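W.,

You were right to be curious about this one. When I first looked at the sequence I had no strong expectations either way, so I just let the prediction run and decided to look at it fresh. Below is the sequence, 569 residues in total, followed by the output.
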Amino acid sequence: MHDLVIRRGNVIDGSGGPARNADIAIDGDRVVEVGSDVGAGTREIDADGLLVTPGFVDVHTHYDAQATWDPYLTPSSWHGVTTAVMGNCGVGFAPAHPDKHEWLIEVMEGVEDIPGTALTEGIQWEWESFTEYLDALDRRHYVLDLGAQVPHSAVRGYVMGDRSGVNNPATADDLERMASIVADGLRAGALGFSTSRTPLHKSKSGELVPGTMVESDELFAIAAAMQDVGHGVFQFAPEHAILPEREWPWMRELASRFGRTVSVNFSQFDQAPDLWREVLDKLDEAIADGIPIVAQVHGRTVGLLMCLEGSYHPLMFHPAYGEIADLPLAERRAALRSGPVRDRLIAETPDDDGFFEKVVLGTMWKTWAVADGDIDYEPHPDDSIGSVAGRTGVSPIELVIDHLLSADGHGMLYSPFFNYSYGDLSFNYEAHMHPGTRMGLADAGAHVRVICDGGCPTFMLTHWTRDRTRGPKMPLEYVVHRQTRQTAELYGLGDRGLLAPGMRADINVIDYDALTFGKPRMAWDLPGGAPRLVQKASGYRHTFCAGVETVTDDEFTGELPGRLVRGPR
């Protein structure tokens, strides 16, 4: 008699192999049998007509602070994720000198747009070293498993203090101390090390984060420590414009000399819309030469959801809006519906050396109104605010105002800034189909006032395998593989991401035909009442983590079987 049997499901096991109708038997936290005659279970679930997959493994999240106060780690746990890896892009909260807490908060707030008030209110600072940080996480229970990486900015700040800025080289002693911290963190269970080299990543103060412009000797010193320990992914955020020419040489050398997998963020940007093809060529060369480099690619665009309650929307760059920006939402709604502020917003172009025309009016061709909960992340250019304004003769700013005022002032606009140079998701399709890329970059837990991309696992199933109309779809088996076994193996988590005997019983039972999203909304549920955008899914009939049911019909059961994942397995 098994603890649990899931019967007659359409099983896609995560291997990339074809779907099959099968039963799954679970005892404790393990799958013990997958087949047609697995015996009886103390509990049985009829999955006839339902999709059964491994739990999703999201390797690019930013729960470094949220994990210290939120056992449910939403939004990931709303979308079938049973293992998440955080500490990406070089930012995090350990190691931390007691007098550097506010500095670390400002770095995270600037880079990942997590409200500083929430970080200040929520983090309890039970640690100084990175190993103590892992111990603090290990004392907690979660709805999913959580892995961590050692962040470069925190390590550099801890070792070098005020010298950690971008233009200050590390001394030999600094390098030794940083390498030692990274090695100790990996030995204690960290899954990797991360850094950032993009000028987009700045602290709240406007300073580039520590590590942005360091020479390769610093990165090699850390990679050597990783080699000595024997595990760990080297993850980083690049400056996309120089990735194939100026970053790739040291990446190849690091990966080949020290044997560590380099995982680089990978996006398409408008200034050089075809440069991504050079990156894929470089990945082909790395694969041919046996050099472990992979590129993380988002499931959709990297973009903005804009609303009057968020941190960014087009009106905020106009002086007229500045006069009402700090008013309560009800008063802003009234001023935008009629009166002098609305009239000036529509009729006046600010005298700001063309900034408003470039940043706002010049982007209306790639800004869309969000019509409902299941956001169209592949909208047609003909439907953009700019195109509608051109056809109707209505000012684009008037269209923006009226849509932001819809839904009682909760209306939203969508504007991609990466991955939409062609006006569709053809870059994402080509990148995802390449063997040198991996699923990532959804940034769950981050940019909480302008995105809700933690739902990307659901989007991958709905858009790419079922609903896409503007190009080819991807096979369902392939998409499941991309966000289960493939992401698990990237971080050495060999015990999950696959439905097979002996593997972890991390499982989703999904009503695939009805799978969809709820309406995005601004919730004020972070510590201190700080805001974040949230968007739940509908269609997750059951989610199991380590054999324990955590979600039933899209609602939490209250069980918290998740733990800190310490090291590869």
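Here's what jumped out at me. The mean pLDDT is 96. And, maybe more interesting for your project: The two ends are 28 Å apart (CA to CA).

Coffee later to discuss?

I.
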